[in-house]
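Progress narrative, work stream C.
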Amino acid sequence: MTAERVFDLHTHSNCSDGALSPTALVARAAAAGVSVLALTDHDTLAGLPEAHAAAGSAAISLVPGVELSASWRAQSIHVLGLWIDPACRELQDRVSSQAQRRSDRMRAICTRLGKLGLPGDELLAAVQAQPGVPTRAHLAAALVAGGHVERTDDAFRKYLGKGRPAQVPTDWPPLAAIVAWIRDSGGVPCLAHPVRYALSSGARRGLLSDFAAAGGTALEVVSGANGAHHVEAAAMMAVKFGFTGSIGSDFHDPAHTWNPLGRSLKLPDCVVPVWRAYGL
């Protein structure tokens, strides 16, 4: 009897805000029984060559991916690009522009922290010393390491979160543009963690409608540590709007025990799997 494939189509390495190198991530996924893995780092393709090499040795099917930041009604939305072509030069240039936006934002945040009496230049240097694109998670860790806050959650609550004194919004490209980038590279645009956004039910329907109108075709039905009621709600959204469904742990760090790789992820039977079109 052929073993059932285990899919995890949303993971992060230290090329963005994950803790593990792409090689270590693939090895951990293999040990967890994952057979089809997508590396979807935030706004960077840098980890994909290493992950591809490691996957070959680990007998894992690697899905090349990326998680791109978009703007919708002044809110940051994340779109997974699955089965993208990492060699697409146009996509490479566009993703580089996203990384530059992140770098510019980090400098602006650290400037604000400096005005609040914190060592902004030192914090920026600490973030820049880390591999991969700079993220607020890196900065939160630097604030903890410097003894300025006790936990990373405190960093967001006190300084970095929405409405906090060091918060700097990023002017991400519109949602429709991000969807087009993914489609132009041969990829599948998949709306990440749709129940996680702070939206009313009407606004969420508007987001899904706009995503579909822009050419989005998939929805992350099972994501991270979401409970059964979240999965059910996302499955209903997928069926209503005609999206295929994806599943992913949104794995970042082995220390985050609530969303391990693989995580017994299972797509509800009522949803057409996004991987079906790829014969998986």
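Work stream C, second folded protein:
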Amino acid sequence: MKTRAAVLREAGRPAPYAQSQPLTIEEVEVLPPRAGEVLVRMASAGLCHSDLSHIDGTLRKPFPIVLGHEAAGIVEAVGPEVVGLHEGDHVVFAFVPACGRCDPCLTGQSAHCEPGLAANMAGTLLHGGTRFVLDGATAYHHLGVSAFAERVVAAQESLVRVPPDVPFAVASFFGCAALTGLGAVFNAARVEPGASVAIFGGGGVGLMAVLGALAAGATDVLLVDPLPAKRALARELGATVTIDPAVGEVAAQVREHLRGRGVAYVIEAAGTVPAVEAAIASSAPGGTVVVVGLARAGTRASFAYPPLVVNEITIRGSMMGSSVARRDVPRAIALWRAGKLPVEKLQSGTTTLDGLNAAFDRLAAGEVIRTLCTF
């Protein structure tokens, strides 16, 4: 089967991407699903900073690769040995496939599934190999999803079935932004009602964490971001305080708003050294700092040693919000149905495959939260 797909052949082409065209829209052959695999027609795919990080070379995968990892679609065919999925099912993709058999999966840490992460690094599907052929040679999968293609083959372990009445534009948020942002709140930080929460970074993951903190019952919800539009959107979503890091020391601003105290829970979703360091400095005694932002390999941050001990601060990383996709996607949908997760407010417009390069320019400039590629 032939399909149109956005292919990245090399990293590091200069912005603006509308001119340098790092993504080329090409006809790719999609091989039939094998045992345990499913053919999906893509419906909606979000543009995420993780995709941008592959375009600019911050993160590396084998080339050529079909990008995209936050998506929802419709099952068109199932291979042998597929369980629980049928033609016509609506599905959300999880960007770490969970084998269900390795030690991390068996202990509720499926974001660290060993064969899943190995497949993601190799650009293959969970059960091995690729299902894309480009110019007679192999093209690779992005995180087992490759959302910027009209049709894809994915491992059944990469898919979560969702009710058909959930709009695809909503469902696609649950594949990355919700798993990571909500998971940071509920799974990693375990925010309780009445707590204070500060989120560093007002992108899709950070603003999803704002919504999660509010849904968890936090009474002080702070958003730290240098861009006025993102601070304004955070206030519209319900954040009680927004902070511009350019105004002055962030930790001092946080304490000014919290009556001299630090924050009980801090979620760093910006992926920068200044944000991580300011997040740690903003923590209250006994506080927890959850780091979900991704930075270039080898990046180092520093912080004062004594307060870590004296103030008993916990610092932890969180991959995919420490989520279990088949557990947490239905929970996110339940919050959305209850009106506690208005993810529609995070959508910044739509594009097609042909408009992806220009759309990534807008994402890199901080002009949008989530542009959706529709099919």
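The first strand starts at residue 2 and ends at 8. No further action is required on this item.
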